[in-house]
């Protein structure tokens, strides 16, 4: 179904925030449904056609190099079992989907100014947009500050998504990103992947390669149908899922998306074990606790 975008409360002659063509920023991705707090650092160089994002204090490092190979490439350096092993995985761009630098902030085109609000001891501009697809209605808000005159890059403070399902008449999805230490300067050598690795393709299934290689893409996108949502189809096929009603289908999809995010975030930590999607990935947290069976293995 076609995506619909709703603009909200335009105000005066304000221009949407601009974060500049080069920056460094820290952040924490928060997933309340699974008590996940995932720290990251991001470096972005638009003119150099490259970016880098590290997760869990550099445990997993991703390099997006648009000028490599024919259509760019993503390199991910991460620990694998046993934990002492470090490997490089590679995702090559294609003519249809070339690799581009990945921003740690959302694309604010389509956002509208909503209000001024105190945040972190400063007066922040709050920008908002709403997207709809099917029964999914997502509200996105971005909090920023910027110098008088708008002649310098804006500073991001918070980005939040709250999802509402019109069929279930309930808020069912929420995550946020808290930003800090924003700077318009970065060192060029941070974009060079470490030497000494022979990179291999990401493990199967192939449909997960994009989200494994570029995890933050889904969080800063304002498309209500994310890569995580698109993984629900293969899950249903693999485990022969058939639901009794559209309402149950919607609930199970929500549960699956949250489980999928939890699995991938956990595996970026470099623990002594990994987790994966199993047949209970569409269960609710309450069902999992009641059964006393692990959600994922």
Number of domains: 2
Average per-residue pLDDT, rounded, comes to 90
- Helix count equals 6
Q: Can you tell me the overall shape? A: globular
CATH topology of the largest domain: outer membrane lipoprotein receptor (LolB), chain A
Number of strands: 13
Tell me the span between the first and last alpha carbons. Answer: 34 Å
Element-level helix/strand string: EEEEEEEEEEEEEHHHHHH
The proportion of strand residues reads 35-45%
CATH class of the largest domain: Mainly Beta
Helix fraction bin: 10-25%
CATH H-level superfamily of the largest domain: Lipoprotein localisation LolA/LolB/LppX
Main β-sheet, in a few words? Answer: 13 strands, mixed
Category by helix and strand content: alpha+beta
What is the annotated CATH architecture of the largest domain? Clam
Low-confidence stretches: 4-10
Rg (CA only): 20 Å
Tag the structure with descriptive keywords.
single chain; 297 residues; alpha+beta; Helix Hairpins; 6 helices; 13 strands; 17% helix; Papain-like_cys_pep_sf
Topology:
Elements: E1 4-6, E2 22-31, E3 36-45, E4 50-55, E5 60-65, E6 73-80, E7 85-92, E8 112-119, E9 122-133, E10 136-145, E11 155-165, E12 170-183, E13 200-201, H1 209-213, H2 216-220, H3 227-230, H4 232-238, H5 246-267, H6 285-291
InterPro entries: Papain-like_cys_pep_sf, Prot_inhib_I29
Protein name: Si:dkey-228a15.1
Pfam families: Inhibitor_I29 (PF08246)
């Amino acid at each position: 179904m076609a995506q619909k975008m709703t603009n909200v409360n335009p105000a005066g002659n304000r221009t949407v925030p601009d974060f500049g063509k080069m920056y460094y920023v820290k952040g924490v991705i928060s997933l309340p449904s699974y008590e996940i707090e995932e720290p990251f650092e991001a470096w972005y160089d638009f003119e150099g056609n490259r970016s880098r994002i590290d997760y869990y204090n550099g445990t997993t490092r991703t390099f997006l190099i648009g000028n490599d190979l024919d259509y760019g490439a993503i390199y991910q350096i991460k620990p694998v079992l046993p934990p002492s092993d470090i490997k490089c995985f590679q995702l090559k761009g294609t003519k249809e989907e070339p690799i581009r630098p990945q921003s740690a902030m959302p694309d604010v085109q389509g956002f509208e100014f909503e209000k001024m609000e105190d945040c972190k001891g400063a007066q922040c501009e709050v920008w908002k947009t709403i997207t709809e697809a099917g029964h999914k209605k997502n509200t996105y808000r971005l909090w920023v500050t910027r110098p008088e005159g708008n002649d310098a890059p804006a500073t991001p403070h918070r980005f939040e998504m709250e999802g509402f399902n019109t069929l279930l008449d309930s808020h069912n999805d929420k995550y946020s990103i808290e930003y800090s230490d924003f700077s318009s300067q970065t060192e060029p050598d941070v974009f060079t992947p470490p030497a000494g690795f022979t990179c291999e393709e990401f493990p199967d299934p192939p449909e997960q390669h994009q989200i494994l290689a570029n995890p933050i893409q889904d969080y800063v996108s304002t498309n209500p149908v994310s890569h995580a949502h698109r993984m629900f189809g293969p899950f249903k096929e693999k485990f022969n899922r058939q639901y009794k009603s559209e309402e149950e289908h919607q609930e199970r999809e929500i549960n699956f998306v949250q489980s999928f995010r939890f699995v991938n975030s956990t595996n970026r930590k470099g623990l002594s074990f990994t987790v994966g999607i199993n047949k209970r990935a569409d269960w609710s947290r309450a069902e999992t606790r009641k059964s006393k069976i692990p959600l994922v293995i």
